[in-house]
Amino acid sequence: MSKTSTIDPHILDQAADWLMRLSASDATESDRAACLRWQQQHPDHARAWAKAELLISKLGSLPPSLSIPALDRPENLNRRAILNKLAVLLAIAPVSWGSWRTLETLGWTADYHTASGERRELQLADGTQMTLNTATSIDVKFDSEKRFVWLRSGEILIQTAPDNAHTSRPFMVGTRQGQLEALGTKFTVYQQANSTQLAVLEGAVKVTPKDADISQQIIVNAGQQLRFNRYGIESSDALDHTAIAWTQGMLMADKMPLGEFVSELARYRSGVVRCDPKIADLPVSGSFPVSDTDMALRMLVSTYPIQLTSLMQGYWINLLPV
């Protein structure tokens, strides 16, 4: 087998189990010897364990919350969930471990956050209403000069309120690509990998890319959407209501390529969802519930020439041609 080939998810699951067992405070020499024998049984076992050792070298050690449950009863559901997450992390290490670590640690230390598949509604101190989409984290800072929300990751819907306590504090949203100023408005902001997506439902929003000339500021009015990077505007279009369907708990697709659909749906569930390149361009249309991604996947399979394989109790999904 090629050294660059994918390791069987079942083997990664076993490696995650060994990682937890040996990270427990009462791990024995007998446990370590048994793990070594397992590594020697097959080259892929050794490759999987090399990933586990790389993970430990990056993180220093497993957090106690992960290692302590290692000796729980095998049927313990919390332990099973931890094993699943570790197996997924081993699958993407070392290339993406940093991104995963950022989402799992920095995101969870934000002022407000949501887990995968969760939506949360907030009311800020000034009365502004906010909805946090899946896997979203924000920081909020209000002072005498401005009202500021930093979008660390994910997507938010904002309905601003009049600032009755002060007369001139602007409402600002910051992302990695720039700054947005609400001009009495309702809008969504989506922090993507290398750009920010803005959709304005009511009022207007002023956009200032981070490294652009001040002359490149733009006012985006209701009924418009815009994507920008730190240097300027990438695209500007009429509002696509499918992009804000998440506020109603839905993922709407209109001839969306299956590969793109899978990437969007994967935002709403823990684990990995993969699409065979042979069917990545298959056009998908319909409304799918993001609050029940298992149902969304069943709808997909029942409608299109697709078959689904599930590993690690649903943490690893493969979509394949029939």
From TrEMBL:
Give every FecR N-terminal domain span.
13-53
Give GO terms: molecular function aspect only. sigma factor antagonist activity
**Known InterPro entries for this protein?**
FecR, FecR_N, Ferrdict_sens_TM
User: Per the database record, which ranges form the FecR protein domain?
Assistant: 111-206
Q: What is this protein called?
A: Fe2+-dicitrate sensor
Ranked from the top, the taxonomy reads:
Bacteria, Pseudomonadati, Pseudomonadota, Gammaproteobacteria, Thiotrichales
